[in-house]
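Section 5: illustrative case.
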């Protein structure tokens, strides 16, 4: 294991790699009321940010349900289906670490050069100044458990955190010495405006059932 990733233990639960990161951190407040699915107009790009090292392109997509509800129908169906396909593993990990609302992040690594060395455990999150290590990685490709990629090969997994990755707070993500601040106040404002638009639309539809979306 990398000395840069402070782990207490590592084991396998099904195909999920449990990292055993310290969960004794303050819980992040999450939104109680979720907008209904199917009213959003955003797409997957609105929930994704990228970062690049000398040998890797890394794409990160927030999978919190509170964020997915802001997507258009097709994008929501695709990502919601992905999360539900791993629901048993996610719930098992959440139960193991006593996490009521785990943070969910899909990460894809794309190798830019031949023989790219990488360590999936190096990725961490910072949510509104709160530092978070993932507690587990659920593989979406078998290559996420390796440490080497060939040129143009992809490795992907769902990272599970001990706290929700609240989409309405600024976030940064770090891989090794590379950090992205792409989830900034501008992105948060886009999501907040969309949430407000959906809530307004739902209220309008409730008062005028004949009105469209």
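Designed sequence:
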């Amino acid at each position: 294991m990398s000395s840069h990733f402070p782990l207490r233990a590592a084991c396998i639960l099904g195909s999920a790699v449990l990292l055993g990161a310290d969960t004794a951190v303050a819980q992040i407040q999450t939104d109680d009321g979720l907008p209904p699915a199917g009213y959003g107009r955003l797409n997957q790009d609105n929930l994704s940010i990228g970062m690049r090292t000398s040998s890797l392109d890394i794409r990160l997509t927030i999978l919190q349900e509170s964020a997915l509800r802001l997507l258009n129908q097709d994008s929501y169906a695709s990502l919601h289906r992905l999360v539900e396909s791993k629901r048993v593993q996610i719930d098992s990990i959440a139960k193991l670490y006593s996490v009521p609302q785990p943070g969910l992040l899909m990460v894809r690594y794309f190798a830019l050069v031949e023989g790219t060395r990488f360590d999936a455990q190096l990725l961490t999150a910072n949510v509104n100044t709160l530092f978070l290590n993932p507690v587990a990685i659920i593989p979406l490709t078998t290559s996420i458990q390796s440490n080497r990629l060939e040129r143009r090969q992809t490795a992907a997994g769902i990272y599970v955190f001990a706290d929700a990755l609240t989409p309405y707070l600024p976030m940064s993500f770090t891989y090794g010495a590379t950090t992205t601040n792409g989830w900034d106040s501008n992105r948060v404002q886009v999501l907040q405006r969309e949430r407000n638009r959906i809530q307004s639309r739902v209220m309008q539809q409730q008062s005028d059932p004949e009105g469209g979306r």
